[in-house]
Amino acid sequence: MRATVRQAARATLQLVLSAAMAFGSYIFVTVLLITAIATAAVVGAFMLPETVLLIRRIAGAKRHQAAKWTGRKIPEAYQPLTGTVRERVRTAVRDPSTLTDFRWMVAYYAYGTLPVLMLPLWPLGLVVDGVWCGLLRRRAVVLPLISRLADLDAHWSTVLLKPSPKAQLAVRVEELVQTRAGAIAAHGAELRRIERDLHDGTQARLVSLSMRIGLAKRAYDQDPAAARKMLDDAQTLAEEALTDLRHVVRAIHPPILTDRGLVGAVRALAASSALTVTVTVDGLTDGHDGPRAPAAVEAAAYFVIAESLTNAAKYSGADRADVHLARARTGLRVRVRDEGRGGADEAGGSGLLGMQRRVAALDGSVTVTSPVGGPTVIEVELPCVW
């Protein structure tokens, strides 16, 4: 009986909040009428986008309330209301979610009265269920109806507030436009970095190498010893230029990924890190045995791990880190954790931003959890077909 009463009390709170929101919606009718009249008169068309934004906030509050009761999030698919007044009005009218929210609000004027049905259930339930459960030891029959009312309210809200396929498609297209722009920006930044590395490093060494060889050729007949010394210096410069070229090539696509696969490359990366790194693998194999993710996915995962370990070694103050690679049904999952001081800011540097752009270009997601005091956890999901 106590559990039944507690559940009924929880459902009552849910219904009271729903009743308060319904009462606010009834008051909002006045705003809707004023907006409709003003828009019809053209002079008040600027009120339409603001009214739509208010409806979005009310619908968002209802989504949050229903999701809190059911435990299932209701997605949103709104087009941003930006630009001039005409553009905002056009977007507000053409956005499929505007019709969805308006349809829900009209329906809510009817089923928003569900909380009223709970009022007689409490006294009746305390009497009937008190005797039925307390004396006869049977299952309660009246008070659970309050929970069913809350379930019904949440179910109808979920069905009515779920965005249409057209709205979800529009949001998806907008996301792809943004990720494409981010991928182009990341690609441009990578090209500039490669150009800078080649210009400042390799090219300078090759120019110096050419000059040393030229001087050695001139000095060969008069001073063979000096010419030999210049040739030794030229050989050193050639080796340094080759080293610079290897670094540039590794930044483009590490050859070790092709040779040893993602797991082997990550283990080699962990072995060369300044931290003590533990690598755990779930569902993946070393080398070329078993299925492998596409090359672009492996390269992005490798870059994320390398950048995360570099940041941890430089800024976290930690002495160890953990890397976890897992094969999922829908893709590849990567998690890097360090026990450092935390406080990593996604907007504070180019490392995390570059990481997000690389992953977003593959339609993946990055989650950074870094409270002050640590730990810092970077989780990445990269979709792919195995």
Quote the average pLDDT: 82
Q: How much beta, percentage-wise? A: 5-15%
Largest β sheet strand count, sense and barrel closure: 5 strands, mixed
Q: Helix and strand string, N-terminal first?
A: HHHHHHHHHEHEEHEE
Arrangement of strands in the largest sheet: 1-2-3-5-4
Q: What is the number of strand segments?
A: 5
Structural class: alpha+beta
Low-confidence stretches: none
Task: Describe the fold and architecture.
By secondary structure, this protein is α+β, with helices and mostly antiparallel strands. Helices cover 66% and strands 10% of the residues. The chain has helices at residues 2-40, 47-70, 85-94, 96-111, 121-134, 144-161, 165-219, 224-252, 255-271, 295-316, 350-361, and strands at residues 276-282, 320-328, 331-338, 365-369, 376-383. It has a 5-stranded mixed β-sheet, covered by helices on one side. The longest helix has 55 residues, at 165-219. The protein is elongated and about 115 Å long. It starts with a helix and ends with a strand.
